Amino acid sequence: MNASIAAGAGPVRDSLQPVCDALLRRARADAAACRADAARSCTRLLADARAEADRILDEAHSSGRADAALLDTAEAARTRRTAHAFLLEAQREVYDELGRRVAQALQAELAAGRLGPALAARAAAALGPGAQVEPAPGGGFTARLDGRCADCSVEALVRHAMAAAGRAGEVWT
To answer: Which residues constitute the domain of residue 44?
Structure first.
């Protein structure tokens, strides 16, 4: 019986060959269509991914430029503040040195006897008759009368001269 099955298998197989070939062609066509769909899908996904990457990169560049501009602005402001602080410090040093020199010049005039009598008279005149005039510590004179005080000390004269020069802008021009 095996021999008869084997003998009959040839004609059955031959008769099914066109069906097998058609099924194989159909499977190959379906596989090719699936591959083509997959390739198109991959191409679309890759294009979408590249577009998204470009968008993200553009956004990052814009954000980076904005951050850089903010940093530049902040750095410029910090530089201006630092420069202004240096200027103020230099002006303070000049102002203090000028005050010391004015005080030294006044003390030299007092020591030479040229300024003392005028300062004592000015202090007394500021308060009127009966004012008690006394030498001030550091040079110059003060006068007192009825709880009032006229200060013609070197320290007060330097303060007054420096304030007047500052108001007139003479110190920094």
So the answer is: 2-168
